[in-house]
């Protein structure tokens, strides 16, 4: 570890971010279960809500990196519950896109409102000026020097 | 979503944290590969470096939540490479603890120094005062209201 105190505090900030993100995700996971769903299902619905024309499985999977792995079973279950529908791609009979049904969009809006409330509660001790200071600082990282741009 | 602008900015902060953590982990993963190792291996070594007397597999697994799943194959490989050793637990023939060998501790120190340098570079645009402001703000979250305390 560098003897430079700024470098050491940047490392402390990274370890803090990592822990805070993990703890917040664990708490969100517990609350989503209490709300009768799961965090990966919510993440899938959130991604689909941003793509009203639908998303292919590859695109959906790339946008969800961390929830990771195989999104197809999640989409299958959402489809069986009438929250997602698969629509044909014109000119390509083998491909289909998944998109939220009206019921799925309504369910997502209700969950998103609860999710926003939970975050407001979990982050509620961070005052307005501090939120802005943290946003301003964190907008500057990470500075990437490798060629590859993460897709998430 | 709440109409309250502070609540909306707290949500924006959380989404920023999530994306920053994922991007930084993706970058660290790429750099660890370039350094001839992997992020999960580094995480295992970092956990063992904090436990000089050794750790059981359950304890190690709990401390690594996100890298997740089964740490045993990682520890087996580190052991095969002479970086980790398993030591018997007095009075319990069925249990053993994993700990870093001297070579493992030296390898970890070298990697940790590189890791700290990468973080300093990736977070290098965040100035000293901003690092402290972000640390102060983020120390206040998450406020947990459920009984369960995440182990990580």
Give an overview in words:
2 copies of one chain form a homodimer. Chain A is mostly helical. Chain A has a single domain (7-132), classed as Winged helix-like DNA-binding domain superfamily/Winged helix DNA-binding domain (Arc Repressor Mutant, subunit A). Chain A has helices at residues 5-34, 39-49, 57-63, 72-80, 102-122, 128-138, and strands at residues 84-89, 92-100. Chain A has a two-stranded antiparallel ribbon with strand order 1-2. In chain A, strand 1 (84-89) and strand 2 (92-100) form a beta hairpin. At the A-B interface, helix 1, helix 5 and helix 6 of A face helix 1, helix 5 and helix 6 of B.
Brief write-up:
Two copies of one chain form a homodimer. Chain A has six helices and two strands; from the N terminus they run H-H-H-H-E-E-H-H.
List descriptors.
homodimer, two-stranded antiparallel sheet, about 150 residues, about 10% strand, 6 helices, Arc Repressor Mutant, subunit A, mainly alpha
What's the name of the CATH homologous superfamily of chain A? Winged helix-like DNA-binding domain superfamily/Winged helix DNA-binding domain
Gyration radius of chain A (Cα, Å) is 19 Å
Beta strand % of chain A: 5-15%
Give the mean pLDDT of chain A: 89
Taking strands numbered 1, 2, ... along the chain, how are they ordered across the largest sheet of chain A?
1-2
Number of domains of chain A: 1
The dominant shape of chain A is: globular
């Amino acid at each position: 570890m560098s003897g430079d105190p700024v470098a050491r505090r940047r490392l402390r900030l990274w370890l803090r971010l990592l822990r805070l993100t993990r703890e917040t995700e664990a708490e969100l996971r517990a609350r989503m279960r209490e709300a009768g769903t799961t965090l990966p299902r919510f993440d899938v619905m959130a991604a689909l809500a941003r793509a009203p024309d639908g998303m292919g499985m590859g695109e959906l999977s790339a946008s969800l990196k961390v929830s990771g792995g195989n999104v197809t079973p999640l989409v299958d279950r959402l489809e069986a519950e009438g929250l997602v529908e698969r629509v044909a791609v014109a000119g390509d009979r083998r491909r289909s896109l998944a998109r939220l049904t009206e019921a799925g969009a309504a369910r997502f809006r209700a969950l998103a409102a609860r999710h926003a409330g939970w975050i407001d509660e979990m982050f509620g001790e961070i005052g307005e000026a501090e939120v802005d200071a943290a946003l301003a600082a964190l907008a500057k990282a990470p500075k990437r020097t490798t060629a590859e741009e993460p897709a998430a």
